[in-house]
Amino acid sequence: MTNVSSQQHTPSGAAFRIIGNVVRDLDMGKDTKNAQASFTVAVDNPDADHEASYFYLRCFGQLAKDAELMLTKGSRIEVFGSMQTWQNRAEKKSGVYFAVRKIIPLARCKPLPAATNEQKPADKKGADEWIASYDAAVAELARQEPKPIARRAQR
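Below the sequence we write its predicted C-alpha cells.
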C-alpha cells in the first residue's frame, strides 16, 4: 500500500491521499474572511533508509478551524484532497499546492470539542413557520364536515 497516490483525476485536479505525521504546529492564515491552515506532513519513504518525503498542505474554512484544534507536531493523520495549480504570470512562476478536503486523525491528535464534533442542524429559517401553518391547515380541515361528493348523472 502506497502512502501517496495521485493517479485519480477530479475536475479540479488530481486527487491525493497522504498518511503521515505533522512536522510542526499549524500556521493559521491571516485572512479574516475565511480560516486557512497550512502544515507539513512527513511521509516515510519505503524505498530509502531513514528518509521521508515532505508535503506542504493547506485547508480552509471549518476544516482549518478543526485542524487547528486537533493537530499538533507529531500528530499522525490521513488526509484526502486535490492538487491545485497556481500561476503568477508577472513573476513567471507556477506550481502545485495540496488542498485538503478531509482529515482523519490516526494517532496523537487532540479530540475536537463536543460542540465542534456534532453535526450542525440545517438552516431552518422559515421552516418552523411553514410547519406551524401546515399543522393549522390540517387541523382546520379535520374540523370541517366532509362535503358530499357530487356524482355524475348516469346516461
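Residues 23 and 73 are 5 Å apart (CA to CA).
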